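Hi team,

Filling in the usual template for the complex we talked about on Friday. All components are listed, including any nucleic acid strands or ligand strings, so the model treats them as one assembly.

SUBMITTER: L.P.
PURPOSE: interface mapping
COMPONENTS: three
RESIDUES: 735
SEQUENCES:
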Amino acid sequence: MFCAELKSDTLKGIVNIISTLIDEVKFTITPEGMTLKAVDAAHVAMIEMDVGKGAFESFTATDSEIGLDLDKVKGVLKLASSGDVIRMEQDESHGRLVFKVGNITRRMNLVDTSSMSDPKVPQLSLTANISVSVDELQKGIRAADTISDHITLKAGADYFELSCEGDTDSVSLRLGKDVLPALDTDSEVCSMFPLDYFSNIVKAVPSGTMVNIELDNDYPVKLLFGLADGNAKVNYLLAPRIESE
Amino acid sequence: MFCAELKSDTLKGIVNIISTLIDEVKFTITPEGMTLKAVDAAHVAMIEMDVGKGAFESFTATDSEIGLDLDKVKGVLKLASSGDVIRMEQDESHGRLVFKVGNITRRMNLVDTSSMSDPKVPQLSLTANISVSVDELQKGIRAADTISDHITLKAGADYFELSCEGDTDSVSLRLGKDVLPALDTDSEVCSMFPLDYFSNIVKAVPSGTMVNIELDNDYPVKLLFGLADGNAKVNYLLAPRIESE
Amino acid sequence: MFCAELKSDTLKGIVNIISTLIDEVKFTITPEGMTLKAVDAAHVAMIEMDVGKGAFESFTATDSEIGLDLDKVKGVLKLASSGDVIRMEQDESHGRLVFKVGNITRRMNLVDTSSMSDPKVPQLSLTANISVSVDELQKGIRAADTISDHITLKAGADYFELSCEGDTDSVSLRLGKDVLPALDTDSEVCSMFPLDYFSNIVKAVPSGTMVNIELDNDYPVKLLFGLADGNAKVNYLLAPRIESE
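RESULT (copied from the run log):
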């Protein structure tokens, strides 16, 4: 059993993040909220999301799993205005989820989750810890566009830098301690990542969100941030592109 | 002879409605205004429009016919700002209509109307009568998108419903008497229509317009509404799609 | 040596004008500013631009030449907001120009200018002299769209007219002395021009700019206007399309 109401903006925020990686998703439902673990088809990035009860206007559920086609959920979101409340109710007899937005009722077939297994999220302990507004990251991504397919993240004692090195041209965005709420590293660390993945996730995070970045040398980067006033927590892990490959 | 001035918004409203069905149109001009009857190439929908003198800022005409290419008229509308007055004057010696918008003069060849006959508009007496804001219809159309190629309209004693049934998913917009200025039917009636036609006409009606819908079982639907503060009257008729076909 | 700072809007205005003709450009730098002479590949139009020191927030340079790829400069402009100051500094050892926008550093390879020769700008003495707001010209261009590939400019004692003559349709924008700050001609003059070239340059001139037009019979037209509060001067020359060809 699953019946919940949430603001359309909250649902939109959740869907935008997940759909950077996958189109069909399995949510694990408990009486305390929804969780999700997903990896993209190429196994380059991984997402772990925990949407607590508090992110919802109302939430009543027993343990269950729900498989959703995110493109269809995006269609439902287009029917709602900002601030509208969306109601979701499981219709177990028909294997459907019923969405209600105002006087619109949208019945959606659930996706079969039997073949969708949860990926194992590696436990990483990374050297550098940076707190940065996603707006700065979005600025860095705009600058990187057309220079290269990769972006390098680098952190030192007093800076965090995003840079791109092309054959003839280069660009870098260097952020000092004055614009970084937190910056903590024992040594200078640096890893390179596929620009498209990094760009997609950074663009999907709502403007104004603070992102915690954990970084090391030629290691995955971890992006941690909250949605829905912190009631939803996201852990995004992106594999590095090792230069010597 | 035909010489008239009207607000660009009025002309735009008229052109938007007609161009959902046809590209070239014959207007019948009398000293009292312009009328039009048109059917689309596939004979699925029909439009009857009566633009009275009152819709114009000035209007002087003798009985005549004018054939227009609506794409060209749309080009003229792009030259006018909202609130601008557009002047149209027939140049009979050259078979042209001369548009004036501010200090722009646009001379347009008339379309030959000799082969354009008026369709016969069937007189229908339909069971249900519903008054509804076009904004509600537009909401229903947005919801129907991607579910199916058809939309079902249904009216009962206390509701009017737009719905779409796909293979696995469905959507419906149910409007109660609280949002319907008028709802009058002896029995529950229901017909299905091609979504593209219904969608095109509903999108072309200006936001805020009240539409009168006449509906029956497996019969055409009639949409009646006004433009230009009620000085132009539109009667739109759409053939049903009978399921057993 | 070249090091300068200027408002992003100023750089944008300059780039928009030049890129109507060419993609790669050679600027001649002196201690007093930058100049440019360029002709398009088809030798139909020519541009002469003089950007004085006063157009910059700061400007320090010795005599030199700088070759730039305008598409890349447009990329830099996308990183700046209106009002932002962009810093450009020549890195002579690497043959690069370094742009700084806020905390972004963009290093750009310079284009080789050795094969780029300055075109000779013909000295013309043209009969008619018209001062007109570019907004009026932009209105005329919107009207000309879809009628013909050519636009005719005509000036008489008390009017300036832009017109287009198609096979069946025509359009004209006639401006009287009331909307023309200056209009001076000994006789009626008229020349026809390729609409695409005329349209591109007119659209690139910022709204509100006053353009001085010099016109004659079947002769090139000269468009003179200022950018950056008059600190940059542009002379644009467009070859006529002679009807008898």
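MY TAKE: Chain C touches chain A through twelve residues (CB under 8 Å). The longest strand of chain C covers residues 45-52.

Thanks, L.
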